[in-house]
């Protein structure tokens, strides 16, 4: 169990290259189950979650080779249609194999994900969607057991604009007989990229990028090559780090369009920007202004940036309110930030943050991916030394974050070994 040791107070400056999108890759890899063959998937970051998805697919008979940032995925020999609890409990996105397996092989046995660090994250919309496409679905012994000779097109209106459910249903509907409609579909860039990938495979999807997707099922799809879009949450995390630590930072290989909600809030906080097609330059605010945020579905302020925003507001010149409307209980980072000297009150799904003059380094515990990112950011800005424990949470979604921060002048190092 590694930890990070951070000596705070360093100004960040220079350039950093943003990696490929974790959340797109976690949808595209299972999509390869929809057609037998060889796929070359480029710009795929080296992350624990990507490795976990790889192992899950290998259990089904998929061959996966990594060549630097490219995964060569071969689905010729798929012979098992099960996602065991041992794998699924590590990562909820494992549920993405459900739709492709039922659509392509007519059967799937997928473990229910179980609990999450921050409260209930049901998969009822995934199950209902597959059922509406005509699959026979039972929950047996903690597993979703689904069967179908051939899925049939259907109209599905999602109660909640769920990223995962939209992805799963869209993949399944691509091979259904007839036309499906997904209303209140998610429009996150990762879902739009998945729709583009499926279309390259031969799927017929209208309304890509909108909340109403119309999918005309086809009999077969074919393998294709693809490059992942940039990871907008990694980019957002580095922007907040730069705003927090002073200095000017340039992000390369990112997509400013996918970050407009974060960029406009950072401007309100006093940061200045120059934007290019695939780069962003941020100049930090002299003083951080307090800015309220309410998370929302895309293109609103992403819930995956909520924790990092709370860290920034902890050092603002005033009070702000951060509401998470997607996950009501995603505040495990708050007690740890308070250990660093932040002044935060929680009231249901709202954090009331009173800016303080400074944070003071100490030992803090990671609890989940984005919470741990907020603690690293706090450590970068804090006086003295901060130790962020259990950084395996970070390794799930940030590729060599300490190396990238070091390149910007941060004093951060990874200490490997026994339990800290
Ligand atoms: C995706 O999770 C992302 N994960 C999450 O990022 C992100 O926080 C989330 O979307 C919201 O943007 C991946 O893409 C792998 P949802 P997902 O289904 O698909 C409710 C990160 O840090 N819901 O859009 O699981 C649910 O409880 C991760 O990279 C149901 O009620 O999110 C939540 O309140 C963490 N029933 C809301 O919808 C369902 O069947 C949004 O969840 C499904 C979801």
How do you describe this structure in short?
This protein has 420 residues and is α/β, with parallel strands linked by helices. It is built from 14 helices and 24 strands. Strand 8 (136-140) and strand 9 (143-147) form a beta hairpin.
User: What is the gyration radius calculated from CA atoms?
Assistant: 21 Å
| Largest beta sheet: strand ordering | 22-23-1-24
Number of strands: 24
Shape: elongated
Give the arrangement of secondary structure elements.
Elements: E1 3-7, E2 14-17, H1 22-31, E3 38-42, H2 48-59, E4 63-67, E5 70-74, E6 82-83, H3 85-88, H4 98-105, E7 107-111, H5 124-132, E8 136-140, E9 143-147, E10 155-157, H6 163-173, E11 179-183, H7 189-200, E12 204-206, E13 212-216, E14 226-227, H8 232-245, E15 248-252, H9 260-268, E16 272-275, E17 279-283, E18 293-294, H10 306-314, E19 319-323, H11 333-339, E20 343-347, E21 350-354, E22 363-365, H12 369-381, E23 385-389, H13 392-395, H14 401-407, E24 411-415
Parallel strand pairs: 2-15, 3-14, 6-7, 10-11, 18-19, 22-23
Antiparallel strand pairs: 1-23, 1-24, 3-5, 4-5, 7-9, 8-9, 11-13, 12-13, 15-17, 16-17, 19-21, 20-21
Helix pairs in contact: 1-2, 1-7, 4-6, 5-6, 6-7, 8-10, 8-12, 10-12, 11-12
The chain binds ligand EPZ.
Structural features, described:
There is one protein chain. The chain is of the alpha/beta class and 420 residues long. The chain has helices at residues 22-31, 48-59, 85-88, 98-105, 124-132, 163-173, 189-200, 232-245, 260-268, 306-314, 333-339, 369-381, 392-395, 401-407; strands spanning 3-7, 14-17, 38-42, 63-67, 70-74, 82-83, 107-111, 136-140, 143-147, 155-157, 179-183, 204-206, 212-216, 226-227, 248-252, 272-275, 279-283, 293-294, 319-323, 343-347, 350-354, 363-365, 385-389, 411-415. Helix 4 (98-105) runs parallel beside helix 6 and helix 8 runs parallel beside helix 12. The strands form 6 sheets. Strands 22-23-1-24 form a 4-stranded mixed beta sheet. It contains 14 helices and 24 strands. Strand 18, helix 10 (306-314) and strand 19 (319-323) form a beta-alpha-beta unit. The mean pLDDT is 97. Ligand EPZ is lined by residues 23, 26, 92-93, 121-126, 160, 162-165, 186, 190, 303-304, 326-327, 369-370, 397.
